[in-house]
From TrEMBL:
Swiss-Prot/TrEMBL keywords: Exonuclease, Hydrolase, Nuclease
Domain Predicted 3'-5' exonuclease PolB-like span(s) in chain numbering: 62-224
Superkingdom as given in the UniProt entry: Bacteria
UniProt cross-references to InterPro entries, sorted A to Z: 3'-5'_exonuclease_PolB-like (IPR019288), RNaseH-like_sf (IPR012337), RNaseH_sf (IPR036397)
UniProt name for this protein: 3'-5' exonuclease
One term of GO molecular function: nucleic acid binding
Keyword Hydrolase: yes
Length: 237
């Protein structure tokens, strides 16, 4: 039962990704061919590989991480805070810093990671990019040999499914129906690549990523029938 979990032991997270290269023509010929093959089912005859390249950020083989935002509760007595911070900049540094956070502060058996659709997207994406960047995968991300009940991951999408595995609910829809303040600001996921490569506005992306991390925590509180965070309880560090 999620009501019995200690909120202090959960690291909430969200990532933002973009195509690894700004445009299709920046890929070498072999990668262009591999992209063509990788996406042929999704594209069908509706898009050329080049036209479809703005979606490359959703595949770890063709995308990269530009921001990881994390949040965690600190509850002492009747004082509750939620601290949010972000790793951004060079991808290898982002991954190393996130790795250090897990190894130094969230490596014990009681510690859990939580995101929305994180089991299908965020966590595998991080692990794959760590391999590509030759960074050791921390124990909290390394699932090899672990039984399902030993995996230290929570997923608000999975919790909302209640076993209905064909069901998908976006974070935006879930916050709306649960009465959580909307996490979305002036951009959505489809615009992150443009904001990153064209506008070069990483601060806007960080704000967007942190809002999603806060929203995941709020959804988790709502699933436990607990009071939502108010602005004064949220601390950006």
């Amino acid at each position: 039962m999620i009501e019995k979990l200690n909120l202090n032991n959960i690291l909430f997270l969200d990532i933002e990704t973009v195509p690894e290269e700004e445009n299709f023509n920046s890929l070498d010929a072999e990668m262009q061919s591999l992209w063509d093959h990788k996406t042929q089912y999704q594209r069908k005859d509706d898009f050329t590989p080049e036209e479809f390249y703005d979606r490359a950020g959703i595949w770890a083989e063709f995308g990269k991480i530009i921001c990881i935002s994390v949040g965690y509760f600190t509850i002492k007595g009747d004082v509750r805070n939620f601290r949010v911070t972000s790793f951004f900049g060079d991808e290898k540094k982002i991954l190393k810093d996130f790795n250090n956070l897990l190894n130094n502060h969230f490596s014990q058996p009681q510690h859990l990671l939580c995101g929305h659709n994180a089991k299908e997207f965020d966590i595998p994406f991080i692990a794959r990019r760590m391999i590509i960047n030759q960074i050791a995968i921390p124990d909290k991300l390394n699932l090899f040999g672990k039984k399902p009940w030993e995996i230290p991951h929570l997923d608000t999408l999975e919790l909302w499914k209640f076993g209905d595995y064909k069901h998908f609910t976006s974070l935006k829809l879930l916050t709306k129906i649960l009465g959580v303040p909307s996490p979305k600001g002036d951009i959505d996921g489809s615009q992150v690549g443009h904001v990153y490569y064209v506008e070069k506005d990483i601060d806007r992306i960080i704000t967007y990523c942190e809002k999603d991390t806060i929203a995941v925590a709020q959804v988790f509180l709502r699933l436990r029938r607990e009071d939502l965070l108010i602005d004064d309880e949220i601390i950006h560090v």
